[in-house]
Amino acid sequence: MAMTSSPFAANPPPVGARFTIAALALIIVASFAGLAAADRSERLAADAARRSAALRNAGADAAATLARHERLLVRLVDAAGSGDPTATAAPILAAAAALDPGLYAAAVLDAGGTVVARSPSRLDAAAFAAFAEAATSADAAKGLYRTAARDGLVGLVRVCRDAEGKVLGFALAVVETAAVSAAPPPADDTAAIEREWRAAWLRNGALVGGIGLAVALVAAALDRRRRRAAWRDAESRAREAAALQQNVADLTAAASRADEASRAKSRFFAQVTHELRTPLNAILGFSETIRREMFGPIANPRYVDYAGLIHDAGSHLLSLINDLLDLSKLEEGRMEIAPIRVSAAALARSTLDLVEMLARERNQTLAVAGVEPCPDLTVDPRAAKQVLVNLLSNAIKFTPVGGRIELRFAARADGAVVITVADNGAGMSPDDIRLAFEPFGRAHGELTARTPGTGLGLPIARALMRLHGGDLTLTSKPGAGTTATAVFPAETRAPAAVPAAAAA
Prior knowledge:
With about 500 residues, the protein is of the alpha+beta class.
């Protein structure tokens, strides 16, 4: 069978994998960008804190150094104001260089700028003289002031005055300019931080990109494998569907051929049995004439016996032919019923007339119950009588001599009539019951093997019951007898043909 569309027409491949990969890539990129931005902000904040701390530390160091130098100058000023500045300042100046490593030179000058006392100096004479000259030429109104810086050094000067404000002298300390000046702010490392951050970003970006690419490749490979598996699964299902359709078509064709063969068989049975009835009726009529010696006595009585045997065999054959005709009509759906109102008593009487003689021959008790209170039935009289005759005949045949058979009528609340035929015969197993309802099927057992029959009575009886809208069931146990239950509905609506095979 040709395929008219791709297997994915009914089973498209999964498309969510692409969205999953894209979402995963976005998450990775967003996470990396967020981490990079946080790292950059952290680096800049750390640099700003470092520069602020450096400024604070430098300012504190400069203030401490200036305070130390100022204490020295104060002591020198005090020495300059004493009666003997040379003797008083000398010890201080001698110890100043050792106590203050940043001190290049210190001296006490009189009001005219002459050096009264000085400490050991790391400056040459010219440099020291320049600082001494600058100390006396500066603005003397200031209490502590600085001279002009040179060679990275600056002079700190404090003026010594008497009580009337007259200048008595000067105290000079030459120190490094950077030690007492406000330190410049540390270099702004933003550009270096940016360069470092970009390098780290590129390095980490390459790493994250590689990981993302690997994840994308793995996801793409898994998606491709999944799509290929889905494709193979769809192709397999398409092949299975095509094979199933072909099997259905083959089975339909085979069923059609079997149905046609069954109909041909039924038509053959119907035609043959119809053709057999004409000569068989002649055989029955002539054998009955001979058996009754209607045209005079027969010399040899054995001919009379033979004529009786011929009549009995012909009657059995006629019964078989009638059953085959009924079976053919049921299988072809040509059997029809004509329901009318029939009293239970009339149906029971017409049925018992046909089987009482057979029961007496086997010394069996045939009891009837529930006929009088039972309401009328809506049935086809011939079909209903055929059902009951088949059930009673089976009960008589499969019940030992001297047994008991009961025919009971009972009305149900819904208006249906239940007719049961119960015996105390050999009984059947569940498998035997299923076999008994099949055409030409007969239960197994020694009594069944000795009892003649075609196996058509029960299938035809059940089919006739279902034509009425009712049903026929059997309940039995081996050695405990059998009960056949026929349920006729309150009203038989539109009659319909029911094949015997379906009824079984």
